[in-house]
């Protein structure tokens, strides 16, 4: 129970950090798989990330059914989260956002690729999911498990996908890592656009991406987490909840 | 009377939000139709949006005549508001601004089009009004009902127009929706410029714009409004005034 | 004496505003002609604009000699100010800055021109002064009356000039107007670059620039001034000191 | 001892300034050579620059061995610092960062050159170090003296180098000067990219770079330092520690 409380605290912190670092604005969300039951996940009710309090965190079954809603309205797009937890036992945390620099890539088909070491976590291939391909004219929202599963299928074993005319989704093994990748996906996209305008870009080699990935762990991520907690006005614990 | 007080409070909040979110700087304004008399509208006296207090809100007849000025000087460009309320019974709130990213579109004739779901509210067509076409060399300000009506005519049944060498105007059915469209008109313009530099852009289809529009309501807008109130240091009420 | 105190207070406010609005960083300065003696001007000692206090304001003769230094070190580049007051009896205030968006124009010879009504105050022609033309390899600083006069000559009867590899200078009839033009010179440059990247730009016509100029007065400038005072944490007086 | 305490205080201030001015985010570091023993240098333990306190400052031998770790974990990349102090007796302070605007230059081979007087300190030539040239696929980090020496060799007698897919390193004769160059390396890169997009750029001549360099001293740097201390919430001393 104490463990669950700490995890909820960490999830609220993640929401505030994503807002403070400009990855989400009034929309976007982050979830974590339930520590006691892998068939559930924790996600806020429908609220802007920077406004979220502990009591806003709800539990959902993988199909998106709330466990104990108590009048709280869920996010329409929670199916992004459930579908990824269903397809990927290795995934513990999911971020969905409308991070600005990634959107131009998603609507032009230009591929985002790791341009500096901190961007290596996005993976060697960042696919683009276009809801129009299988679902035609929609409100561009992932509003069913069917759509969520289609997105999860495209992500496959990867960490990230862009969503055409919408944003991006990140899946990772911990809250901190999912937030870390989300922040640096945005930075990588911003730097990559600038570099592409200046000439031929030397991206990270496949071997470099692998080497960085094998080295990215709590040592580096906690350094960022402490800094982001400070900026977001949240208390920091070195050990992940 | 209580209802009017709440609406004035909401209008002051809208001014502060537009300033905080970078849609207006020292100039620009937002109005609302009077709830008890559709032939009047409420608008601040001539002051920067971030400085406005409740006592600055004045009532105007549609032709721009103040109801009870009490020494307060009106905005010169209030005719933008009156002309839209006159032409459009469905319009309840109007925003006029010099939002930075839209200005380059207005002076080059490049069309702004919805590039992501949050930009759908700007509509399928965002026309550009050039005061020079009918009024020749002016100070570029809408300083008469004749000019206001010319602008309103171009907007027609739409929600937005750019103004060449000047800014933009947004007309909508509520204060919150007018602010929401104004914020995302700016974001959409910023993202669209970036995307155009990267290649052929896949904009939202007409069907997608319709689908998003049919889904955009208090559920989403209030989520942003709560966040913007927090950022602007204003109290939030879930129900629109 | 009271009048002088108010003017010094206004000059400190101008420094803080220029810093807050991003026109100056740790460098750059603003001066005002002495109200009792047109052969003197007031300017801070050598300090970053955002740090300046009333006691830092010194009086200088037009040739740059301090009236009563009391151990305070002057800015090396004060000759920019003196040379403009010497050449232009109509000038009451001068701003020198390294405002970021103007620098790329100054090193490429692209001309800045008014692109929206708030940019009209920069004038129809913004010349570029290159210290190398008459002075060869220097530290790019205006460190003598000879250099100051060369710059003032290029400005002629105008309000602005860019300085190659250095920044910009603005001369106007009041502190508030000089600050206003400095702020919007930066915004105009930023918007113009974006617009040039998008296609053929329709700048303000000469007639429009004249019309805007004839309309720009305390009514508009004070609205900005109140807002900037609020943002800079300075008290606001509607009447210029 | 008092002198060492003051230097540690100055080093913490430098960390906070680099964070506040956007030169470092959660990563990057700044060191200073030990005032009593040139075979040692002072550098924080592994922490984000904006979080660093006096007790985080550790002493290291030039080969990177901590003198008295007391459980504090060092930065992996401390070899950048040691290798420069080893190769360059004239160097007293080193900054390593991932400053955003320099990265696109490092991955495209476009050369950064001084574009305005405040950028002259970066030097006439800013070489790009590509770890891949001599070390193949790595995590792009400088994780040994061998790699540090390879970087130091490329820097030679210069002040700066970019690191492909990683960031930049600055070496200078004092903490304040190293920070000053780091800040303006970022600004110069940002302005240079904009200028290159606008046309042929007139960079500073070699003679101008020399003239500026000969004039850049405590007079100018302290002006910036006071401003940066104020912005970072640190107390300012005019004399360098």
Output the strand order for the largest sheet of chain A: 3-2-1-4-7-6-5
Q: What share of the residues of chain A does DSSP label as strand, in percent?
A: 5-15%
Shape of chain A: globular
Oligomeric state of the chains present here: homotetramer
Order of helices and strands of chain A: HEEEHEHEHHEEHHH
Give helix % range of chain A: 40-55%
Number of helices of chain A: 8
Biggest protein-protein contact in the assembly: A-B, 34 and 34 residues
Briefly summarize what is shown.
The structure is a homotetramer of 241-residue chains. Chain A is an alpha+beta fold and 241 residues long.
Topology:
The structure is a homotetramer of 241-residue chains.
Chain A: H1 2-20, E1 29-33, E2 40-44, E3 57-61, H2 79-87, E4 93-97, H3 103-108, E5 128-129, H4 131-135, H5 145-155, E6 160-163, E7 167-172, H6 175-198, H7 206-215, H8 218-232
Parallel strand pairs in A: 5-6
Antiparallel strand pairs in A: 1-2, 1-4, 2-3, 4-7, 6-7
Helix pairs in contact in A: 1-6, 1-8, 2-5
């Amino acid at each position: 129970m104490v463990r669950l409380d700490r995890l909820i605290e960490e999830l609220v912190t993640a929401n505030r950090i994503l807002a403070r670092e400009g990855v989400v604005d009034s929309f976007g969300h982050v979830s974590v798989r339930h520590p006691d039951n892998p068939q559930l996940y924790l996600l806020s009710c429908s609220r802007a990330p920077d406004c979220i309090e502990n009591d806003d965190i709800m539990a959902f079954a993988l199909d998106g059914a709330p466990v104990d809603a108590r009048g709280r309205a869920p996010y329409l797009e929670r199916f992004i989260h459930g579908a990824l937890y269903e397809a990927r036992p290795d995934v513990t945390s999911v971020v969905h956002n409308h991070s600005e620099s990634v959107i131009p890539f998603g609507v032009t088909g230009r591929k985002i690729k790791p341009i500096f070491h901190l961007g290596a976590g996005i993976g060697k291939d960042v696919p683009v999911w276009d809801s129009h391909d299988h679902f035609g004219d929609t409100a561009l929202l992932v509003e069913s498990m069917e759509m969520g599963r289609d997105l999860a299928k495209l992500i496959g074993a990867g960490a990230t996908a862009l969503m055409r005319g919408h944003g991006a989704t990140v899946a990772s093994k911990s809250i901190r890592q999912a937030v870390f990748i989300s922040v640096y996906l945005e930075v990588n996209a911003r730097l990559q656009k600038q570099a592409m305008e200046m000439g031929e870009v030397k991206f990270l080699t496949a071997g470099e991406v692998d080497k960085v990935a094998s080295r990215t762990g709590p040592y580096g991520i906690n350094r960022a987490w402490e800094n982001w907690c400070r900026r977001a006005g949240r208390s920091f614990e070195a050990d992940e909840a």
